[in-house]
Structure prediction request, 335 residues.
Amino acid sequence: MIIVLPESTAATDINKLTAIFGHHRDVFTHRNRISIAGISIDQLPAAIRQNALEIITDVPAAIQSSRLLHPENEVIRLPHTTIGDGSLAIMAGPCSVESEEHVRKMAAVAKQGGATVLRGGAFKPRTSPYSFQGLGEAGLKFLREAADEQGMDVITEVMDDEHVPMVAQYTDIIQIGSRNMQNFSLLKAVGKTNIPVALKRGMSATVDDWLNAAEYIAAEGNHQIMLVERGIRTFDNTHTRNTFDAGAIAVLRQLTPFPIIADPSHATGDRSLVGPVGLAGIAAGADGLIVEIHDHPEQALSDGPQALTPAMFQQLAKKSLAMHNLMNNFEEVDA
Ligand code: PEP
Ligand code: MN
Prediction:
């Protein structure tokens, strides 16, 4: 809710009015405006109601991604996974769905390591038009069946607005890839569904660009959004494919109620770096981890160099849970 007071209201008066709410509510003031989270108009003290020029309860969607008006975490509940409730969600699978047999095998590996979400691309956004583009709808069927066989949820990418209804039939989470983070018609299309969306950070997107992209989805009514940090382009991407921005994860935890997922596979491009960087993401506050796995990475149809072997994945999953426990076993101290 936003309360608009007369321009002439003194800052000290605004402070007196907001002090009524104590410290347990998110109250934000900006000049003659006060925004208050989680309160209905009839709970407003008479002093505020009488002084207000206007009380806006129909707050624009532009505030959905802000803790200002949504202090509580947005918790996403899937059949086999809960994201954002304080637990750690583990998502794993091949970069691309390569065949029915292969994705079934990878689903078993993912499940064994403790993953509850199976990843796999059937529509691949490749930098080169000559690279493997994915199996399309056939790949989605294989992915869904493999996940169902293991009792897992599915995450997969959608690249075009017109594919949204079709992909929606097969998946539990719709992934928007980095290259499409600001494809506004696609964001609106997934915002009209009621399927959770994993919004990957654009390679050159600031945190604010990213949150605004999330707003495009939220503005259509779908608030089940998770933000995936997958690394950004910086001046030094010689030893890593991208630069993993762990700081952004810590910042987002403060700014937004949406869950945050760390993707160290695309951030590093190198399987030997996926573990340490993923653990850094969890230490920074990520609610989940998404990684690529392959039993024969040298034969992978995409992103082989960053694919974890099954043994590496099992170990990282264990360390991830240990890191998550470590980070959550201390009382927070007020800043
Ligand atoms: C992927 O998840 O396989 C992918 C293409 O990721 P990104 O959009 O982050 O490059
Ligand atoms: Mn990939």
Notes: The radius of gyration is 22 Å. The pocket of phosphoenolpyruvate (ligand 1) is lined by residues 95, 121, 125, 177-179, 200, 230, 266 (CB under 6 Å). Residues 2-56 form one domain. The mean pLDDT is 92.
